[in-house]
Model the fold of this input.
Amino acid sequence: MSEVSNNFLYDLIDEDIREGKIKADEIHTRFPPEPNGYLHIGHCKAMIIDFGTARKYGGKCNLRMDDTNPAKEDTEFVDAIKEDIKWLGFDWEDRFFYGSDYFEKDYELAVGLIKKGLAYVCELTPEEFRDPKYAGDLTHPAVSPYRDRPIEESLDLFERMKNGEFPEGKYTLRAKIDLASGNFCMRDPVIYRIKYVEHHRQGTKWCIFPMYDFAHPIQDALEGITHSLCSLEYEIHRPLYNWVIENVDIDYNPCPPRQIEFARLNLTHTVMSKRHLRALVENGVVDGWDDPRMPTLCGLRRRGYTAASILDFIGRIGVSKSNSLVDIRLLESCIRDELNANAPRRICVLRPIKVIIDNYPEDKTEYFSLPNNPNDPEAGTREVPFTKELYIDADDFAKDPPPKFFRMKIGGEVRLMGSYIAKCINADFNEDGSVKEIHCTVDLESGNGNPTDGRKIKGTIHWLSAANALDTSVMLYDNMFTLENVADIPEGKTYADYIDPNSAVEIKGAKVESALKDAKPGDKFQFVRIGYFSVDSKYQNRFNRVVELKGSFKS
Done:
């Protein structure tokens, strides 16, 4: 399994081991997704780092659902997250937790902070909290009129908040840290708020919920996490993480958790915000969370990406301290390399035109052997039938060919892949100018070899026997967004302005060879001269383009 190689995270962990803070096999990480949507490839990077780090040191990694914000959480997402993690080859064993498992302990520790004079109940409304009069700025400290509220009063109000006596927004619990801090996260942050919403596991038991910055370090500490690896946007929150660890009453074993940040994954032409991905689903822009254009793991899987190709991709981009934009063509290159080596070759005619071989017997069928994979001799061959009536792709014929057009044209010769050389005699056209059918003759002496008279044939096209071809539907997928850096949307524009209407093109009436009649959902093939395709898992008799045959990415 390809995973991330040595990096600065490992260097810092090695330093902790050398200094005797921890033993290698005591390394304990966690993967804490929020169950309010499906995992996307950005989560995949975090997952591989979390599970991969534990695996490297012989330690452990927990799976913990961060369900402290119940607004849009659902067991559907919990199940999907588990499936994705297993699909990528990781195992949390018996260490599966929910953030909500610790609500009682969160409350107890919050009460402990109030008793220490390190937290207080505040009455500022959300609007007042954002007002510069109270929030301050870089040159003025924040202000809280309730900072010196007596401890007993805060304890009483906090318990009544828990008991549901106040409306949402009436009170919050704030940590008492430093209103003049240059880090606004430390300016007496809110650590509890009132929220009347049913929790997917706790029901209506709780109407106050801890903020992530308070709950997360407590969860890490209670589970014995030694290294809390997270993305770079949490760097500014690290002082608050450490403050919670230092001030709540928890016995740390084997050591207090250490937060370390790494750069998140950003891909060209790709939205990595779960909120915006949810909007695409809810607004019907895509065919669900598993739409093959989505960067979700279930979408990539349905499109035809493999776990190995995604692990390879994450391994190639590595781990860094600074954010960057990764070219999506690198991801495409990873799956292309894998499928080029492993995918069986099959023939598909996307836009079929009938070809009649005038000098071929009506009742004759012969078979030509074609390799299942030229890169793998052990894959063997298959027998492809050849008959009087064939299909070729419309793109392989030109009535008025441009210069250097080496495919089928009237009066020209072309190799029918793996079989005879054909000469186009004439073509019949419909009233709209489209091709009705093409008439050819074949050099019956050419077989699958060179012409006996030494003439050179420059072009080769694929074909199918009309009598044996199967009907199918083919989806040609491409990048959903035309904008390279989707995070950099010009003012006055929205994501919707950059959705490519041609990112999903369905071709009905395509033809494939009969060897595909038993193909199962998820089976992958190279359609010769076209690209790599996978059998759709949602719609019967549909092939999804995973990636084009050739790419322009240079690593």
User: Anything to note?
Assistant: The chain has a mean pLDDT of 94. The first helix runs from residue 8 to 18. Residues 224 and 253 are 6 Å apart (CA to CA). The longest strand covers residues 421-429.
